[in-house]
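Hypothesis: this fold can be encoded by more than one sequence.
Test: take the structure tokens below, design a sequence, compare later.
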């Protein structure tokens, strides 16, 4: 009996076998997405149908073009392979896992500038793209920064596939920055912070210490605060590098250093000859207009003395008074799409006065571990559930940024932080 050989180049009607197999798989995925949008959201029939038809036609047109021009285009199989790779990678990035890089120091020392992470979309449930027509592998603008990398001709409502877990206190989460209004939700800038408070929590910060529901919340192991350091001599840069202090400055007026350190950094620095005193820099309660909810005439809060503030959950009925009507203004107006106004000290929707509001989504309160160098929920408020991207899993590469610790132009192999490779994020 002769063995049959599978020939992926064999034609199945108008498509090659390989193209047909891919098209069938893609159609199944597309159909599942269509059914979920139709049954699980309030989008109606038209947007999900347009989404389904657009991608079915787009892929079909591509393969029809390739079939008719297959004898005229050299390297056609390579083009097919590239097409398949782009679509497969896009599906993986959208629904499974995606790579990110840490660009700032807001999470030092938990995450360092130059860390490269894998972020899971599955743990909390993958979010179906809300602006599905976009250029692959680009987030906001086209390469070169010219023009949008997406089209708003088709917009889909928020829907999240079932996940393995819900967000827990102290999870490190990637999300779309809610304070950015120039982009659709899923195209806003990606931020990464620690989720300090989850829906239903009441948060308070007292002299830099975080309390949840009256209990003190454990500070992140590698979290940093800022300190004034008094010395009797100039500190050697290499000494600071050895004890892993990378962020510091010298104040000529006071003759002292300001350093951003972990608890372990502080203990190590206290042993350095010439260090006289290390004083925590704590912002006392005061009128800070930049602090959320930006009402210093009502709330004398600071970044180190903040709250109490309640983090809403889906189904809550919020009582609106002279303070909470401002605290939940963005939630009601921007995130949940109401015509909300505050007129003469009264909260209104569509011109009608309201004294309470039914919450439609879960919300979260995020903070950076580098507490004095992090723009977070203390400045721009709650993160809605539709802004959540995924959970940070592990570091797959870490490269020290050129210039850190005063070193410049080090060879790339000397800047790789080998000890951080494949470290789990927690």
């Amino acid at each position: 009996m002769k063995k049959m050989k599978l020939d992926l180049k064999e034609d199945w009607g108008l498509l090659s076998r390989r193209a047909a197999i891919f098209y069938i798989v893609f159609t199944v995925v597309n159909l599942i997405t269509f059914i979920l949008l139709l049954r699980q959201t309030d989008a109606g029939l038209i947007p999900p149908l347009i989404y389904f038809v657009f991608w079915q036609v787009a892929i079909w047109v591509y393969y029809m073009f390739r079939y008719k021009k297959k004898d005229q285009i050299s390297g056609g199989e390579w083009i097919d392979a590239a097409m398949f790779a782009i679509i497969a990678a896009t599906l993986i990035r959208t629904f499974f896992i995606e790579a990110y890089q840490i660009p700032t120091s807001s999470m030092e020392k938990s995450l360092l500038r130059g860390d490269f992470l894998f972020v899971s979309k599955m743990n909390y449930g993958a979010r179906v793209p809300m602006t599905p027509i976009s250029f692959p592998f680009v987030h906001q603008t086209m390469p070169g920064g010219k023009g949008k990398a997406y089209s708003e001709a088709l917009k889909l409502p928020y829907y999240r596939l079932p996940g393995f877990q819900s967000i827990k206190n102290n999870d490190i989460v990637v999300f779309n920055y809610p304070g950015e209004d120039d982009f659709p939700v899923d195209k806003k800038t990606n931020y990464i912070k620690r989720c300090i408070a989850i829906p239903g929590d009441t948060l308070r910060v007292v002299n830099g210490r975080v309390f949840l529901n009256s209990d003190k919340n454990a500070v992140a192991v590698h979290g940093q605060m800022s300190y004034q350091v008094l010395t009797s001599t100039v500190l050697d840069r290499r000494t600071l590098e050895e004890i892993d202090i990378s962020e510091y400055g010298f104040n000529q007026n006071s003759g002292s250093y300001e350093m951003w350190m972990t608890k372990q950094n502080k203990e190590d620095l206290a042993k350095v000859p010439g260090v006289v005193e290390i004083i925590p820099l704590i912002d006392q309660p005061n009128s800070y207009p930049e602090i959320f909810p930006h009402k210093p005439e009502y709330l004398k809060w600071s970044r180190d003395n903040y709250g109490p503030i309640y983090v809403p959950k889906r189904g809550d009925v919020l009582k609106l008074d002279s303070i909470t009507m401002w605290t939940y203004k963005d939630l009601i107006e921007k995130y949940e799409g109401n015509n909300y106004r505050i007129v003469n000290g009264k909260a209104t929707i569509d011109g009608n006065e309201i004294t309470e509001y039914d919450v439609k989504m879960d919300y979260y309160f995020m903070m950076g571990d580098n507490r004095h160098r992090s723009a977070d929920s203390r400045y721009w408020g709650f993160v809605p559930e539709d802004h959540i991207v995924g959970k940070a899993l592990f570091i797959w590469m870490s490269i020290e940024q050129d210039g850190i610790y005063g070193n410049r132009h080090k060879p790339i192999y000397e800047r790789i932080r080998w000890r951080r490779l494949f470290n789990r994020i927690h």
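The chain has nine helices and 22 strands. The two ends are 58 Å apart (CA to CA).
Hypothesis status: open.
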